[in-house]
Amino acid sequence: MSNFDPNTDMPRGARPEEQITTDPSKPSERMQFRLMLFNLAPWIIASLVLLLLPAVFTNNSTITLMNQMMITIVFALAYNMLLGQGGMLSFGHAVYAGVGGFACMHIMNTSDFFSSIPLVILPFFGGLFGMGLAMIVGSFSTRSAGTVFAMISLGVGELIAASSVIIVAFFGGEGGVSGNRTDALPFFGNEFLQQINVYYLIAVWTIISAALMFLWSRTPVGRMANAVRDNPERAEFLGYSARWVRFYSFVASGFFAGVSGGLFAINYEILTEENLNTASSGVILLVTFLGGVGFFFGPIIGAVVFTLVQTVLSLQTELWAFYAGSLFLATVMFFPGGLAGLIMMHVPAFKLGKSKLLIIPYLKTLVPAAIGILAVCALVEMTFHYRHAATGDHEMTLFWTTFDSHTVLPWLVAAAIAAVGLGIARATAPSLKEAWNEANTRGAAS
Amino acid sequence: MSVPALELTGLKKSFGKAEIIRGIDLSIGKAERHAIIGPNGAGKSTLFNLITARFAPTAGTVKLHGEDLAGLEPYQINRKGLSRSFQITNIFPAMTVFENVRCALLWAQGYKYSFWNLVNRSSALTEGADEILDQINLLGRRNLPAGTLSYAEQRALEIGITIAGGANVIMLDEPTAGMSNTETDYIMDLIMRVTEGKTLIMVEHDMGVVFGLADRISVLVYGEILATGKPEDVRADRKVQEAYLGAALEAEH
Ligand SMILES: Nc1ncnc2c1ncn2[C@@H]1O[C@H](COP(=O)(O)OP(=O)(O)OP(=O)(O)O)[C@@H](O)[C@H]1O
Ligand SMILES: [Mg+2]
Known about the structure:
The complex is a heterodimer of chains A (about 450) and B (about 250).
Chain A: H1 27-56, H2 60-86, H3 94-109, H4 111-114, H5 122-141, H6 146-163, H7 168-171, E1 177-178, H8 195-216, H9 220-230, H10 232-236, H11 242-268, E2 270-271, H12 278-291, H13 298-316, H14 320-334, H15 338-344, H16 347-351, H17 356-388, E3 395-398, E4 401-404, H18 408-439
Antiparallel strand pairs in A: 1-2, 3-4
Chain B: E1 6-15, E2 18-28, E3 33-37, H1 44-51, E4 59-64, E5 67-68, H2 74-79, E6 82-84, H3 97-106, H4 123-135, H5 151-164, E7 169-173, H6 181-194, E8 199-204, H7 207-210, E9 216-221, E10 224-229, H8 231-236, H9 238-252
Parallel strand pairs in B: 3-8, 3-9, 6-7, 7-8
Antiparallel strand pairs in B: 1-2, 1-4, 4-5, 9-10
Helix pairs in contact in B: 3-4, 3-5, 4-5, 5-6
The complex binds adenosine-5'-triphosphate (ATP) and magnesium ion.
Adenosine-5'-triphosphate binds near residues 20, 40 and 42 of chain B.
């Protein structure tokens, strides 16, 4: 019973303030243009940053890090199409990225075909394979959200990860599948020999994928994904099958996960079981949640922060996973909105023009807290060194200080700093809270 | 006589051993305003749930414009032009008021599962939703999360969502439940306005509320229809007076 034809617009100009004209001198048109620019600004800025970053960070290891970051961004955004927008908690999403990646590796190794296509379109094939698998699994897993969906996703994830050692022809067994990206048809003479070439390939795919995923959230099926997440029953009484809405979200998410797998294949030229196991599925859940599922840009922040923690911290300490876990735990417990939620919390104060009130109280609380937390980390590291260092090796270096972990003094110092730092933070917390309330209330400062 | 908008024959529903709906035959004509009244626990909401496929009937048939609805899912029935509201407010509390109504317009405007249209690009959607908001007096609340509205406003929004898709059979389950007299008057007035020319089936507790407004009234007691007819006839019915109105009057004292 469609009373309206979607293709016939209502008479335009019925509401003067929404009049659409092409005359730029009309105020409404200028307003709309400004609004459009405002909406596009984050995208333009992000694109420029991505294009200019290699000019700032020229060394190869940084570029590798940024490639890793962008691949994770695409994957995390795809994951959030399910978790944040669709309310579906998947414990096995790595398989869609992984299968997309493996498919790309096999295309790379099919030299007749691969030498006839430019490398830049390879991730699209990854997307197709991720999407194909999602269609198969989604046909039975999206019947319900909640526990059943989560359990099926976990089961399928385990199943496919386990078949990687059984179906050796596709997954390559323990060694995985490797290939050579430079065998592709040169793209305007470019064979992607250098990391920097790959960087630009990934950057363009990241921007396009992110934009498409954002636009998806604005389509009818994207809006209904939110509706089904919040109240599936009501959505059904509005003409939408909750199950099919979930299915379409799932398939779209599978596509972009597959794209990220394809980008991985191009960047590393090897895929192994690790790309689709449950640990990888857990990591992407962690990344997405850390960034914040409630905002579109949340997973982007999560991917950037997590990749930094993973690479930078893992160079410094063997215990990096412990710290990453603690960070995740703290986020879940204290900031369920994730880092994006934490940022957006400050918008009201900014809008009231009172954000300046927060600077000093923040410094007073957060600096001692940070020092205290670092001291706690020092205690953790010392314990680790004390227990696990080779016998006789008593010397350790922490925060540019070398000392003997088997003497009492360093322990006392670290404990004292921790106590004092956290103590000050605790003492100043009430005044921070006061400042926070003040900054978020309308009206003149008292 | 033309095909009735809604026709129930021998409709029964049991939950385990308890028979809640015990054989209902009812025919509601096109553009009729039909009120279903009855005491607590009579089975009014259950009857609604049977018609809209929230529950499957134990026996009997439901026909919409002569078409048997057996085996259809709620969303399929909705697409055939039957829309309902709920006794306990059932909206999307986290979404804005505007967004609630826009979601209710999507299928009706033919968007289906489209991922190639952008909702904010469609003036038909935006203007259609604003028109509904205007009708239910919630334009001023347009951009607030629906969950933050007052109870009466949420009820109005629920009615807005129910009628937005342009269904021609509208079923409202106690739209005035828990409202003050002024609010009841306001909502009833709203209902009469927005269901103009449509088939309206409305559950009510209180005969007084629907007396002047309904074309016909059915009295449901213990899963059976005691009487169906014009309001004055139903009011004059001996059985109804004994079984329901008497009890209701006593309860009021
Ligand atoms: N899902 C269910 N399972 C078991 N019993 C149910 C179920 N739904 C309703 N009932 C029972 O059916 C009877 C009728 O309930 P129903 O909600 O239809 O009454 P009602 O006429 O709408 O009452 P009210 O005026 O309070 O809304 C009640 O005794 C209720 O306990
Ligand atoms: Mg009821």
